[in-house]
Structure formats: structure tokens, C-alpha cells
Design brief:
single chain, 5 strands, Rossmann fold, 5-stranded parallel beta sheet, alpha/beta
Length: about 230
């Protein structure tokens, strides 16, 4: 089996991507990050899901992005809340973590070189998303080009990295429909940016709004436990 690194938060999108990579017969290596995020309870979900989906290895890398802050997820800044998804503002929201996907993909690239893996999966979408610049297809394409110039294995010709972003052109509803078909238990996933310590979702942050909208449009019951 070919090895693949999957960037894995324990959320709806990255869990769907694990299911996609598994369906494609990859041997799975899940990579999560404890980066000082306020919603670090997502890592508990990631551990449970990784065990249930029988990944070969699940690594949680410790990095501290609170050193720089600049985001509602890594600094003492309120997470924006909305009553409905259409209330979400245009532009890049304060929940954007500066250069996060660049950092995460760089770690994945390092692990891929060690494992001799050629494939990295990431659950970004450019359809139903918060407008983050590092979720765009042009970013993924540029990183892949850079990745193949950046490692000893690449220079020596023993590795040709492909960055897979299978959700890139899918709406949240399409993602949920696909994941459901692949047997994903979305009740285990956590998407909220501002959850309770027990994992209950706030229901009003951008991520919760997009999640609720997706289940509604897919015609699938939302199993999320929301804050009462």
C-alpha cells in the first residue's frame, strides 16, 4: 500500500479526507497539531477518530502559534458569532491563523520524506469556507511545486510529492454527502472554533454556521451536540 500523510484536525472536512484516502487504498498516517488553539478539545476527537479508522500512526505535533497570535484562535480575541450563515462577513475573518496551512504542510512534507511517502492529503475547500487565503487551489498548487524543490529526496529523484485536496471544489453539503456514503460518523467530529470543554459546539461561529448549513442542504440530520 502507498503511504499518505493526512492533515487531521478531528473536524468534518479532515475526517472526510481520511475516509477518501482510505477508500483509495492508502496506508494512512494522520498528522494533527497542538498549536495553542482555543479549541484544543478537537484533538480529543482526532484521537478517537484516528483509532476508529485504524490509521497506521497518528502524530500530534506540538507547536506554539500563540507566540505570534494575530488570530481569534490563538490570541485573546473574541471569536465572531452569527445567527445565520448569511451574516458571515466578506473578507478574511479574524479566525484566520497566519500561515497555518503553510506551516502544517511543511511538517507533513518533512514526515513524508522520512516515511518515503509521495502523497499528502489536506481538507481545504474553496467553496463553502471562511475565505482563508491558504485554502485556495492556487496556494495548494504553489506549495506542491515548492515541495518538490525542498527536500533531499526530491532533489535526488526518489520522491515526487502530490498534494491532494479532494474537497477543494465541493460544497459543505457535497462533502457531507460523500463522507456519509463512505461511512463517516460525523457525530464524532468537532468543527467549532469556540466549544465547551466537553466538546459541545457554540452553534454560532463561522465553522458551526457552515456545518449546520451543509447538513441542512445535504438533507442529512446534523448529529452535532450544540451548547444548550
Amino acid at each position: 500500500m502507498k503511504k499518505a500523510i493526512v492533515l487531521f484536525s478531528g473536524g468534518l472536512d479532515s475526517t472526510t479526507v481520511i475516509a477518501i484516502a482510505r477508500e483509495q487504498q492508502f496506508q494512512l498516517y494522520a498528522l494533527s497539531f497542538s498549536y495553542g488553539q482555543r479549541h484544543s478539545v478537537e484533538l480529543d476527537a482526532a484521537k478517537r477518530i484516528a483509532a476508529d479508522m485504524a490509521v497506521s500512526q497518528h502524530v500530534i505535533a506540538d507547536i506554539d502559534l500563540t507566540t505570534f497570535g494575530g488570530s481569534a484562535l490563538t490570541a485573546d480575541i473574541d471569536v465572531p458569532k452569527h445567527q445565520i450563515a448569511t451574516d458571515m462577513t466578506d473578507g478574511i475573518p479574524i479566525t484566520y491563523v497566519p500561515a497555518r496551512n503553510t506551516i502544517f504542510l511543511s511538517f507533513a512534507l518533512a514526515w513524508a520524506e522520512v516515511l518515503g511517502a509521495q502523497d499528502i492529503f489536506i481538507g481545504v475547500s474553496s467553496v463553502d469556507y471562511s475565505g482563508y487565503p491558504d485554502c485556495r487551489p492556487e496556494f495548494i498548487s504553489a506549495f506542491q511545486q515548492m515541495a518538490n524543490l525542498a527536500t533531499a529526496a526530491g532533489v535526488e529523484g526518489s520522491q515526487q510529492i502530490t498534494i491532494h485536496a479532494p474537497l477543494s471544489e465541493l460544497s459543505k453539503a457535497q462533502t457531507i454527502a460523500l463522507g456519509t456514503k463512505l461511512g463517516v460518523d460525523y457525530g464524532q467530529t468537532l468543527s467549532c472554533y469556540d466549544p465547551e470543554a466537553n466538546g459541545a459546539a457554540c452553534g454560532y461561529c463561522d465553522s458551526c454556521q457552515l456545518r449546520k448549513k451543509g447538513f441542512n442542504e445535504a438533507g442529512i440530520a446534523d448529529p452535532t451536540i450544540y451548547r444548550s
